[in-house]
Amino acid sequence: MIARPTVAWLGAGRMGVVMVERLLDAGFEVGVWNRTPERADPLVERGAARLATPADARSYDLAYSMVLDDGALERLHDPADGLFSGGRGGLATWVDGSTVSPAAARRAAADASAAGVGFVAAPVSGNPGVVKAGRAIFAASGTAEHLERAEPVLAALGRATHVVGEGVEADVVKLATNGLLAITMQALAELVVLGEKAGVPRDRLLAFINDSAVGSPFSSYKTPALVDLDLTPTFTVEGQRKDLRLALGLGAELEVPLPVVSTTEVAFSRTISSGIGAGLDLAAVVLTAAKDAGLVLEPRG
């Protein structure tokens, strides 16, 4: 095992930036590529090398991608200018931390294998603040050899890694987890609106819920957003809907009915298409729930 592999980081979005910062703080040698190069400027100023193309990752021990969706992942291994377009070089392992469909992950893994590179699916659970605090967790799947290669990086990025298989099972785990998160968010939104209209302030209802058997770190974490209506995005309503649709697609492929997930996807779509919550945090579904109830919510902070 390489104690501290060199890392080529692909994707400097909101999550990618804080993850690279953690690696730099831990002393890793990191190169960064982003489709919009200037997004990587703050990381270069902190000591990361700038990569001109994904293919530049071949001079590193490990590539780690954190991109938006299936299409962005496909572009990373495009034969023309992707990761393997110039041969593998010294690259041994590709870790993908994106939330994508298992089918997209399998295609990436197949191209990696054809190039002689191991593939690890390792989606992260946690928003940028959670990552920055070192509290993120990972679902990971891949061969034992490449999971071992990825372990020092995952350990530097978060507090725990759950190995769930040898293929792309980690992507299934992430979709199931995000599906439950969306359902929980929608349920909280509907029920705090019910309480508010019945005369129970949102903060008091949520204080009780959070202290009960059904309370959770997530309900506690989202309480300020539901009470104060600060909907600065930690994870956007659009991003959450994307994951719901991926879960529904997998359900359709496997003939697994997902009626609650389907209903939740409709609720998120209404929040986006109405313009009420576009671009806001996923807790913005509370605004749609309030509108449906004929209620105008005011911040209580």
- Identify the CATH homologous superfamily of the largest domain: NAD(P)-binding Rossmann-like Domain
Q: Round the Cα radius of gyration to an integer and report it.
A: 20 Å
Strand content: 5-15%
Tally of alpha and pi helices: 12
Condensed summary:
With 301 residues, this protein is an alpha/beta fold.
Structural account:
By secondary structure, the chain is of the alpha/beta class. It has two domains: 7-167, NAD(P)-binding Rossmann-like Domain (Rossmann fold, 3-Layer(aba) Sandwich); 172-292, N-(1-d-carboxylethyl)-l-norvaline Dehydrogenase, domain 2 (Orthogonal Bundle), CATH 1.10.1040. Helices cover 49% and strands 12% of the residues. The chain is built from twelve helices and nine strands. It has helices at residues 14-25, 41-45, 70-76, 102-114, 128-132, 144-157, 169-197, 202-210, 217-228, 237-254, 259-273, 285-292, and strands at 7-10, 30-33, 49-50, 62-65, 93-96, 118-121, 124-125, 137-141, 160-165. The strands form two sheets. The chain has a six-stranded parallel β-sheet with strand order 3-2-1-4-5-6, with helices on both faces. Helix 3 links the parallel strand 4 (62-65) and strand 5. Helix 7 (169-197) packs across helix 11 (259-273) and helix 8 runs antiparallel to helix 9. The radius of gyration is 20 Å and the shape is elongated. The model has no long low-confidence stretch (mean pLDDT 96).
